[in-house]
Specification:
The complex is a heterodimer of chains A (about 150) and B (about 775). With about 150 residues, chain A is α+β, with helices and mostly antiparallel strands. Chain A is built from 3 helices and 7 strands, in the order βααββββββα. Chain A is about 30% helix and about 50% strand. In chain B, about 30% of the residues lie in helices and about 25% in strands. A 7-stranded mixed sheet of chain B has the order 3-5-1-12-9-10-11, sandwiched between helices. Chain B has a 5-stranded mixed sheet with strand order 7-15-14-13-8. In chain B, strands 18-26-27-28 form a 4-stranded mixed sheet, sandwiched between helices. Classes of the chains: A alpha+beta (about 150), B alpha+beta (about 775).
């Protein structure tokens, strides 16, 4: 399943956005349902996250890997998580482009799901993912603005 | 014997307890100390199991045992499957997966705990490390060389080849004026019995008999198989099918979970209960259909059929359940349908894929056959510019040609296909409908009329054609008071045998149905039997009872004749008494004769006391019910929705014991058959993930989808059994599906459409209506 979209960080330079998006501690502050996010190596993180899609909810544990980093404009991200409701794997690309004063973040990726989350929620995953991503970016933008201010 | 009750629409004896909620299903069983089982199931379609960590589950307070594949493989036999096809690859499977999983929902571990919530939590605490493997989902891809394989021990995913040729198809196609061909897909369906599966097992005092209650159609066969599975002698085990809330074939099976509760009751010494959730029911109870049929039909200009070729692909899923490889082969036997098809070539491959096993679902192999022949007849009619009713009529065998041997290799017992067709056309006002259709087309409204003149295979069946015996047992006991107890091996699960069997017994013995109690579904109370499936209960089980009654009647005539100082051949049964033939007026009360049999003070020489008889009836052939269904659909221009505006069904199931039960079966059958045509489909994604895992996504039919059905019958008794009955449990499902699709295609004919695949959802029709111009 394809997930894509974009978010505008108004008046925030791409270097600041980049720094935020690649910092585990900062991500954890903003990722909804995130219970644990620790750096385990160069660009690799261990994560525990509570996810709810429709009638299916549960805790997923897994890892995030950032690779092919080209600061401050582009990187690839791999996500693997599994838990009682099944598993979710994803591979995506994040691009940061400056629009003068601010930064546009474009993301696109493919997600595969298995188990109950696939059988009950597959058609809702796209919507749920967009909501989580949107909340995350909004939170990040808020925090970056506070920092700047 | 005059028929006072047979043929009457008596209300079901079963219904008061069902509608008042006082009956008892498996989930109503509760026992002190009872534990609850939950299953951890695979979330991958195809994966190696690298590691299972049960420690966290074991530590949860209230958990009594956690078991995995290695333990059951060492202590229990495999999940059984029947059916032999030469050179078939038969997958072996244990109650829990060992080292590899092959479909989403496959049981990996089982937990028993003090309550079902703890059991569920513990099952979720089991950590499984998988090594995912490529999933094999599409059967055509699975057949190709180089496809990933489900089994390392098999050279490929093709389990079997099954085929035959009758007559000379090459010659038939060479001499044909017209050849039509089409691909027909029977999508995968989930049976969705209202009551999901469930089982309770306990070691019962005083001698530790292993008692299992299961929601099953086959208590005796289940006992035999469970005895092998959990290694308990069969005479130390009892299986009870309490009230069973529907099966549709899905409970004509022996499942891993039934073995697991039995094993865990033995292991823990506690009663163990498992009730399937609806999600488990959709993922891990057998599926039906899933067959691709490429069909070619050769005809003369006048519509006479010369020959047919069918290439069939049956998607078997990952493992064999009880009858997995047998069901699709039935399609070959019935492929000629109700027509003279002098030459038939049928080739089928059974393919293993990473999905739940397919098996018997209402109709089981025959809906696929009926769909392919009834659809290709319409394709041929369209091509020949013949009315579909006329094309059918031209190819029916005549009534005097029965018994009729078909190119499918079976012998149809009796029929008058034209009579049923004519009655259906008359009831539907077929001519009027065609005129109306032409009128509506002019107005840009799309109405279609679909026919299906089906025949089907029932009363399964002769033992030579069945994997576990095709006979049935019937015991009749006339108690000293004259009340009658009937024990039948045909274990009903909604069919109403408690009523219909009582009607037959009452007429035979000159008593009332209220004097008769029909007991079923308990291996400790009933002699060994086979079960209820394949529309066999009345034709085979009813006949066994009928024969046992005849034995008792002979005995009672001897006793009565002795008491009246005449000869047995002069006695006959009349309501409440046995009378001497010839109008002398001499008679003796029924209860008096029964009493004499038990008092045993004055019995004729050589006659033993008591009145009990058991018979095992082995039918000489299947029976072949038939009929014609007419479906009228109107397509909604805005939404594409095919709305059924009229539905006529004329069925011939031979003699009818209770028309109310027959109508009920026809109603339910039509609803399920229409649901295949329009709504239902089990969908797996390309990774083998089940996308239709709940009733939010698996579309069941609703009452508002249907008009009032107009039903009628013709009656052609079967010569195969003394009751002259054929069976009607599946006819509606078999006859209705092609009638609906034929109607939709007929409605879309102005758009040049010759076929549309099931399920015919609004979206498919809408695209056609919006995308093309009517001619």
């Amino acid at each position: 399943m394809r997930i894509e979209g974009q978010f505008l960080f108004d008046e925030i330079p791409s270097e600041a956005v980049w720094a935020f998006l690649t910092d585990a501690t900062r991500i954890a502050e903003c990722l909804p349902g995130c219970e644990k996010l620790v750096k385990t190596g160069d660009g690799t993180y261990e994560m525990q996250m509570k996810i709810g899609v429709g009638a299916i909810s549960g805790t997923f544990t897994g890892g995030i890997g950032l690779h092919d980093l080209a600061p401050p404009s582009e990187y690839q991200m791999t996500v693997n998580g599994s838990g009682t409701p099944g598993f979710v794997n994803g591979e995506g690309k994040i691009q940061l482009t400056s629009n003068g004063t601010g930064t546009v973040v474009q993301y696109s990726g493919d997600v595969t799901a298995g188990g109950a989350i696939a059988s009950l929620g597959q058609r809702m995953i796209g919507g749920a993912a967009r909501m989580v991503i949107d909340q995350f970016f909004k939170c990040a933008a808020g925090k970056l603005r506070t920092n700047a201010g | 014997m005059t028929q006072r009750y047979v043929g009457q629409a008596l209300k079901r004896k079963e219904d008061p307890r069902l509608v008042s909620g006082t009956s008892s299903y498996v989930d109503d069983i509760s026992m002190p100390g009872m534990l609850h089982m939950a299953i951890t199931r695979s979330i991958h379609a195809h994966a190696r199991i690298k590691r299972i960590d049960i420690s966290k589950a074991q530590r949860l307070p209230g958990v009594h045992a956690v078991i995995t594949g290695e333990e059951v493989a060492a202590n229990c036999g495999p999940v059984p499957s029947a059916g032999e096809i030469p050179n078939m690859k038969r997958p072996q499977r244990y109650l829990l997966a060992v080292s590899k999983v092959r479909f989403v929902g496959e049981p990996i571990a089982a937990v028993v705990a003090a309550d079902k919530y703890i059991a569920r939590d513990a099952a979720d605490f089991i950590e499984i490390e998988y090594e995912p493997l490529p999933a094999v989902v599409n059967p055509e891809k699975a057949m190709q060389p180089g496809s990933p394989r489900l089994y390392d021990e098999f050279s490929d995913n093709v389990s079997y080849h099954f085929g035959f040729e009758s007559g000379n198809t090459e010659e038939a196609f060479k001499s044909a004026n017209v050849v039509v061909k089409e691909r027909f897909i029977n999508q995968r369906l989930a049976p969705i019995a209202m009551e999901t599966r469930g089982a309770v097992a306990t070691l019962q005092m005083p001698d530790n008999e292993l008692v299992i209650w299961s929601s099953t159609q086959i208590p005796h066969l289940l006992r035999t198989q469970l005895a092998l599975m959990v290694r308990v002698p069969e005479n130390r085990m009892r299986v009870i099918a309490p009230e069973v809330g529907g099966g549709f074939g899905s409970k004509l099976n022996v499942y891993a979970e039934e073995g697991l509760v039995a094993y865990l009751a033995k292991k823990t010494g506690h009663p163990v209960k498992w009730i399937e959730s609806r999600r488990e029911n959709i993922a891990a109870t057998i599926h039906g259909r899933d067959q691709i049929d490429d069909v070619e039909l050769a005809l003369k200009k006048d519509g006479t059929i010369l020959g047919m070729r069918v290439k069939s692909i049956a998607d078997l899923g990952a493992y064999f359940q009880l009858l997995t490889p047998i069901i699709p082969t039935l399609t070959g036997l019935l492929a000629p349908g109700a027509y003279k098809v002098p030459a038939l070539k049928f080739d089928q491959v059974g393919v293993l894929t990473n999905k739940m096993a397919t098996d018997a679902y209402r109709g089981a192999g025959r809906p696929e056959a009926t769909y392919l022949i009834e659809r290709i007849m319409d394709v041929a009619a369209q091509k020949l510019k013949l009315d579909p009713a006329e094309l059918r009529r031209r190819n029916f065998p005549r009534p005097n040609e029965f018994p009729y041997k078909t190119s499918g290799g079976v012998i149809y017992d009796s029929a008058d296909y034209e009579k049923a067709l004519d009655r259906a056309l008359e009831l539907a006002d077929y001519k009027g409908l065609r005129l109306k259709q032409a009128e509506l087309w002019k107005q840009g409204k799309y109405m279609g009329i679909g026919l299906s003149s089906y025949v089907e295979i029932c009363a399964m069946g002769p033992s030579t054609a069945m994997p576990a015996g095709g006979w049935e047992s019937g015991t009749v006991r006339i108690e000293p008071s004259g009340k009658v107890t009937v024990l039948t091996g045909a274990s009903p699960h909604g069919q109403g045998q408690e009523t219909s069997f009582a009607q037959i017994a009452a007429d035979e013995l000159g008593i009332t149905p209220d004097d008769v109690v029909v007991i079923h579904g308990d291996t400790a109370r009933i002699p060994y039997g086979i079960g209820t499936f394949g529309s066999r209960a009345t034709a085979v089980g009813g006949t066994a009872m009928f024969l046992a009654i005849q034995d008792l009647k002979e005995k009672m005539k001897k006793i009565a004749a002795h008491l009246l100082e005449t000869t047995p051949d002069k006695m006959e049964f009349s309501p409440g008494k046995l009378v001497v033939k010839g109008g002398s007026g001499r008679s003796i009360n029924y209860t008096e004769v029964v009493g004499a049999a038990y008092m045993a003070r004055n019995l004729p020489p050589g006659v033993e006391p008591g009145l009990e008889a058991t018979r095992f009836f082995e039918p000489s052939n299947f029976t072949f019910p038939f009929g014609t269904h007419v479906c009228v659909v109107e397509l909604d221009w805005e939404t594409g929705e095919p709305k059924i505006t009229k539905y006529v069904a004329v069925d011939d199931c031979g003699n009818v014991i209770n028309p109310l039960l027959v109508e009920g079966q026809v109603h339910g059958g039509i609803v399920q058959g229409v649901a295949q045509a329009l709504h239902e489909e089990v969908v797996y994604d390309e990774n083998g993930q089940l996308l239709t895992g709940s009733l939010m996504d698996y579309a069941l039919p609703r009452a508002h989808d249907f008009p009032e059905f107009e039903l009628d019958r013709t009656v052609t008794p079967s010569p195969v059994n003394p009751l002259g009955v054929k069976g009607v449990g599946e006819a509606g499902t078999i006859g209705s599906t092609p009638a609906v699709v034929n109607a939709v295609v007929d409605a879309l004919a102005p758009f040049g459409v010759t076929h549309i695949d099931m399920p015919v959802r609004s979206e498919k029709v809408w695209k056609i209506l919006k995308g093309r111009k009517a001619s």
